[in-house]
Specification:
Helix content of chain A: 25-40%
Structural class of chain A: alpha/beta
Helix content of chain B: 25-40%
Number of helices of chain B: 9
Distance between the termini of chain B: 55 Å
Oligomer: heterodimer
Order of helices and strands of chain B: EEHEEHEHEEHEEHEEEHHHHEE
Largest sheet of chain B: 9 strands, mixed
Radius of gyration of chain A: 17 Å
Distance between the termini of chain A: 20 Å
Largest sheet of chain A: 9 strands, mixed
Number of helices of chain A: 6
Strand content of chain A: 35-45%
Chain lengths: 198, 298
């Protein structure tokens, strides 16, 4: 069985929410419809994926425009790389936004910077484990929609947040993968994740 | 106004560290901090007198007490402790609102004021590290319920908490278990941590027994980080060479000839090679253990 790292993170969050039932999670994993803000985030990722070194007052992608305040970011040359890792009967896959040696870069677009949400998540753990990396770096961009123009966002200087591999990281991933597999075997036995989706 | 995008470059050697120590009030965070190498404690919380093994301390009542700190002021110290970082941020917030009344509303920072807080706090930490000092940020802990789970977080006001998570190279939780104090840098379910030193849970000795305990911990984290820096440089080199070779590979034979090199570069190397193979319309033949042109569907 194949699962995306993001699906396992969705599962982890679902477990913490007493209000949601199994059907809610199945619907979220099978028939997920991105919001306008998520589409903007996908476009922003695309813009960064294609960006070469230089100074930009704006970047455009997927019909969206991003206007920048002052800021600086160092991006790895290796971008949008997918890898797979085995966790018992479950194969977990994730695509990193950037890779520099043993450091993974992940771009996040958000309304406001809330580091605890990233730190307590499982995505960085799986990425470090699957890629055999030591450092996980979030480049968090706050996107504010323009009042004047549709599909246009003002982008603030990025927050840089880092996390590291720790003893027991693989075991933590294995435990969560096992629980996800148990759920998916019961509720999503024939589901194939769409690896092209955001 | 522009975003400057640069090419990520070689890693640098870590000489100075910012470390965050958090835990319940009374857990012994300040006493632990005093076991750092030649410490100076900036006592924003007015609680250093309760610590065991107290060393040099500056009572800080307002941000201006520390704003003008110079290299000569801290020449005799190797470690600067902010006790607590939360109170330090409160002091800085008050100072920002005093200097610019438009930066605050109803006693809280506006978005613009918060931007100033982030910039000035980050600059202060950089200044201390620029003086060649390690920085220890002490924070109280707050427990919050999330479903059945208790989550331990830093007890720091609003958005400024993010500055501590960003600034800390390492983050450890002090707690008492079976009557013994322990320090854990690993993130756990329900608590935060940053463990670049790959340290197991540590028993904290009484300061009389090991007055240099935290200093040794900080040194071991630096050593591990610099070990990682060397490994990072090697990994970058291996992946860079592989990437160049893959760019020249145009068929299955060329890709397969790079399989040993990709294996040497670990999972990331294998992922790079696989991505190139897909670009060339190749797929992996598990029986032959090599790539071959993808067969068209019947």
């Amino acid at each position: 069985m194949l699962a995306r790292v993001s699906s396992i993170e969705t599962f982890r969050r679902w477990r913490l929410d007493e209000e949601l039932g199994a059907a809610d999670l199945v619907a979220r994993l099978v028939d997920f419809q991105p919001t306008e803000r998520m589409l903007a985030g996908t476009a922003f990722h695309r813009a960064l994926e294609l960006a070469i070194p230089g100074s930009y007052d704006r970047l455009e992608a997927n019909g969206y425009t991003f206007l920048f305040g002052d800021g600086e970011i160092a991006l790895p040359d290796v971008r949008e790389l997918r890898a797979y890792g085995s966790y018992g009967p479950l194969v977990v896959t994730g695509q990193v936004d950037g890779l520099l040696g043993k450091r993974i870069d992940d771009h996040k677009s958000t309304q406001s910077f809330r580091p605890e949400g990233y730190l307590e998540g499982c995505q960085w753990r799986f990425y470090l484990d699957i890629f055999g990396a030591d450092v996980f770096r979030w480049n968090v961009f706050e996107l504010v929609p323009s009042r004047d123009e549709d599909k246009t966002y003002m982008v603030k200087s990025p927050h840089i947040l880092e996390q590291y591999r720790y003893p027991g990281l693989h075991d933590d991933c294995m435990d969560l993968a096992r629980d996800f597999h148990e759920f998916a075997s019961l509720h999503l036995p024939n589901h194939t994740p769409n690896l092209e989706a955001a | 106004m522009a975003l400057r995008i640069t090419r990520a470059s070689d890693p640098i050697v870590v000489e100075r560290l910012s470390i965050c120590i958090y835990g319940q009030p009374g857990a012994g965070k300040t006493s632990l901090a005093f076991t750092a190498e030649r410490p100076l404690l900036l006592d924003f919380d007015q609680g250093a007198h309760r610590a065991t093994g107290r060393k040099d301390t500056v009572q800080v009542r307002q941000w201006s007490d520390v704003a003008g700190i110079g290299e000569s002021d801290v020449a005799d110290f190797d470690t600067i402790i902010l006790d607590t970082a939360g109170r330090a941020l409160d002091c800085l917030s008050s100072d920002i609102m005093r200097r610019n009344p438009k930066a605050g509303r109803g006693g809280a920072l506006t978005l613009q004021g918060y931007g100033t807080l982030k910039t000035e706090f980050s600059a202060f930490l950089k200044l201390l590290k620029g003086f060649g000092k390690d920085v220890v940020l002490i924070a109280h802990m707050d427990e919050q319920r999330n479903g059945d789970e208790m989550i331990e977080r830093l007890d720091v006001q609003g958005g400024s908490k993010g500055e501590i998570y960003k600034a800390a190279d390492a983050m450890g939780r002090v707690f008492v278990k079976g009557g013994a104090r322990q320090l854990d840098f690993s993130p756990r379910e329900g608590s935060f941590g940053k463990n670049p030193g790959q340290l197991d849970v540590l028993d904290i000795p009484h300061p009389d027994r090991d007055p240099g305990f935290l200093g040794a911990v900080i040194q071991s984290i630096k050593d591990k980080l610099n070990e990682l820096t060397a490994e990072q440089a090697e990994a970058q080199d291996r992946l860079g060479k592989l990437r160049e070779a893959l760019a020249d590979a145009e068929d299955a034979e060329a890709v397969n000839s790079l399989l040993p090199q990709a294996k040497d570069a670990g999972n990331s190397g294998k992922a790079l090679l696989h991505a190139r193979a897909l670009e060339l319309g190749l797929s992996f033949d598990k029986d032959a253990r090599e790539y071959a042109p993808t067969k068209a569907a019947a």
